[in-house]
């Protein structure tokens, strides 16, 4: 009974922690910068040419607004950033700070300083690794050098207004985010955007969202986050398999525990079963009684395990595990994870282990039940 209770507790707490980890990874990936889907000009993702743009972005944004989709426009360009004697390559983002705040959470994900203000002011937000390589801090002056869309060299002086927390490998290493009006001046790009990020807050399934975007903006290339972040998508699929294997080990342990218990009970009650058969009890009735005993044992054990597992999961969901001491802010395969690991307790995380353990315990009891049902009444009554 203790083994079944412990297995139930471990499985519920582990499932809740893993679900929390995966939910956090998906939220960080989709809510910070990538969104649930993106629109680009055909072929833009292959070569990232500054000339491949979505024209008339305001009309596109209005169509998405009519469908109650949150959307933000972005422009991108490449160049060099220098801070005193340090320099590095950077990917410049031109963003609308107000729309970013309304649709995504990147503006809240600041490690130092503040995000961009509503008006263009030559402010710059840097990825944390880019800032570290430049030895830049909030208030540092950054010299920017780019090749503009008209072929000229664009250069200007910006001031670092903020530095992001870990937000993914690409953002951390190269992102230099500025107001879209500053971007247009720097790159001499008067119209069009390179990307429109769409976020519904999980209200619309991905397949339906993609289909709706294709209908709303014909001619644009539509990608969901699963297509844009294949590593994360694969991680989710692998986690399902690994958790199934993990659960199978504990289910097997619970089944073996019940099998051992019921075998011992069977041999200790040979006289009882022999007497029942001598009184005319059918083998099927004995099988049913033994398996019901096993289920009752599993039921009582899982009740204890569920109470403990749900209580611990609630605490982990509220407080979380603080990994700052040994991991800090970290990314895995380019995906950012928060230093506080919180569980996510779901109905499935509780129900699935309980139901599977019940089935496994009943199946494990069939063998001792069949032994009891096949006992010879005379030999059983004289069994020593």
TrEMBL record:
One Pfam family linked to the record: MacB_PCD
UniProt record, GO biological process: lipoprotein localization to outer membrane
Keyword Ribosomal protein attributed: no
Places the protein is found: Cell membrane
Keywords: Cell membrane, Membrane, Transmembrane, Transmembrane helix
Alphabetical list of InterPro entries matching this protein: ABC3_permease_C, Lipoprotein-release_system, MacB_PCD
Every MacB-like periplasmic core domain range: 2-215
Location of the ABC3 transporter permease C-terminal domain: 245-377
Annotated transmembrane regions: 245-267, 294-316, 349-369
GO cellular component, one term: plasma membrane protein complex
Taxonomic superkingdom: Bacteria
Its membrane topology: Multi-pass membrane protein
Chief location of this protein within or outside the cell: membrane
Family per similarity comment: Belongs to the ABC-4 integral membrane protein family. LolC/E subfamily.
Name by which UniProt lists this protein: ABC transporter permease
Protein's organism: Desulforhabdus amnigena
């Amino acid at each position: 009974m203790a083994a079944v209770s412990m297995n139930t507790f471990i499985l519920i707490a582990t499932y809740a922690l893993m679900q929390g980890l995966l939910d956090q990874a998906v939220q960080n990936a989709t809510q910070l910068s990538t969104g649930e889907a993106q629109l680009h000009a055909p072929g833009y993702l292959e070569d990232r040419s500054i000339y491949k743009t979505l024209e008339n972005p305001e009309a596109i944004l209005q169509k998405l607004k009519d469908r109650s989709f949150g959307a933000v426009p972005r422009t991108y360009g490449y160049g060099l950033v220098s801070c005193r004697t340090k320099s590095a390559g950077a990917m410049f983002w031109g963003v609308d700070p107000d729309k970013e705040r309304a649709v995504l959470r990147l503006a809240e994900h600041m490690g130092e300083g503040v995000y961009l203000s509503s008006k263009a002011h030559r402010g710059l937000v840097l990825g944390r690794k880019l800032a570290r390589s430049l030895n830049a801090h909030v208030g540092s002056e950054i010299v920017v050098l780019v090749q503009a869309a008209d072929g000229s060299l664009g250069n200007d002086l910006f001031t670092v207004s903020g530095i992001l927390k870990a937000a993914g490998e690409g953002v951390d290493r190269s992102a230099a985010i500025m107001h879209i009006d500053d971007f247009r001046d720097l790159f001499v790009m008067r119209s069009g955007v390179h990307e429109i990020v769409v976020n519904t807050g999980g209200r619309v399934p991905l397949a339906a969202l993609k289909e709706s975007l294709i209908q709303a903006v014909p001619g644009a290339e539509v990608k969901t986050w699963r297509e844009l972040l294949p590593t994360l998508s694969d991680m989710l699929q692998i986690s399902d398999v690994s958790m199934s294997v993990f659960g199978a080990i504990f289910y097997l342990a619970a089944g073996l525990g019940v099998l051992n218990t019921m075998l011992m009970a069977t041999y200790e009650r040979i006289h009882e079963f022999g007497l029942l058969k001598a009184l005319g009890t059918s083998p099927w009735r004995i099988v049913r009684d033994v398996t019901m005993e096993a289920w009752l044992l599993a039921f009582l054990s899982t009740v204890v395990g569920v109470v403990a597992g749900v209580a611990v999961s609630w605490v982990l969901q509220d407080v979380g595990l603080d990994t700052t001491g040994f991991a800090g802010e970290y990314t895995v395969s380019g995906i950012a994870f928060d230093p506080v690991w919180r569980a996510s307790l779901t109905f499935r995380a509780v129900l699935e282990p309980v139901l599977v353990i019940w089935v496994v315990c009943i199946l494990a009891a069939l063998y001792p039940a069949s032994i009891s049902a096949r006992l010879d009444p005379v030999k059983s009554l004289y069994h020593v």
